[in-house]
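Recap from last week: sequence in, structure out.
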Amino acid sequence: MLYHDLLRPLLFAFSAEKAHNLTMAQLKVLQSSRLGRELLRLWAGEIASHPVKAMGLDFAHPVGLAAGLDKNAEAVRGFFSLGFSHVEVGTLTPRAQPGNPQPRLFRLPEDQAIINRMGFNNRGAEDAAKRLAKRNPHWGIVGGNIGKNKDTANEDAVNDYVRAMQALSGTVDYFTVNISSPNTPGLRDLQHEKALKVLLEAVAEENNRLGAIPLAVKIAPDLSKDEVQGMARLAVESGFQGLIATNTTIDRSGLRATAQRIQSIGAGGLSGRPIVARSTQVVEWVREAVHDQISIIGVGGVFHAQDVRDKLNAGADLIQVYTGFVYEGPGMLRNLQEAWKRS
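Predicted structure tokens:
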């Protein structure tokens, strides 16, 4: 109640990006001391263990943090103190880049949604790797979400993904290839079969050279069933162990926010409650196509325990949250655990 009644109204009084930066700053302070970490654990509450084996890795329970919140791997320990079983950092590019001009992050409270066009703003993979190299593996599983720089042509994209992997090698437990953000021009073109095959095979080859950790690919929800299943099969053929369904959507149908509000925001990826059904459907499509050949991480619109159950029942092995955490706060995992506590 503290978050809903006091902290969220205070945070929502600021712009979305300002509130995000304030939250990250507080997490960085709290994670730096034993007392601070204990306060985070107390706030989150006790999270029941429910071991999950996915992508060949052991997770304490199904729910982790999606990429996008901790872009620069600055608050990993803080998020683990809040109870997440895994934290995916990034998206990280080989070179630092500022991202798109502000404002670029917008809340739609009436829809329990967020629209972002951040544009892979980050300080670069090497910068994040310095912090990740200091983490204790016992905290939990860390994934490195990687992408290409905005000014890198698609025909040269493979080099960016490889360079990001090289920078993060030895500091993360799995890599996620992000080809589905709508906020980097042309990025989603890499989802087309021919380009995707070249990219995934090159990433797999470099990963084997670096030490062969699990690989996942994150796909968009704005795809047909045939496209989704084709990508899933290609991921399996290329030696990937995971598929993340899904990234944000460019669809704006069914929103409660006014058309004027949506138009004033403009382009960007939509996340949150409006995407929950579509992302769960994509999970189902992937599982139908690849059976048990690959692990599936379900992302999109998770707010309540029933959302977790729905995605697990559709075929997901793991769940990730982002927008739900913004709206529900640090006590979110305590509520989500009802999805597995009684199973």
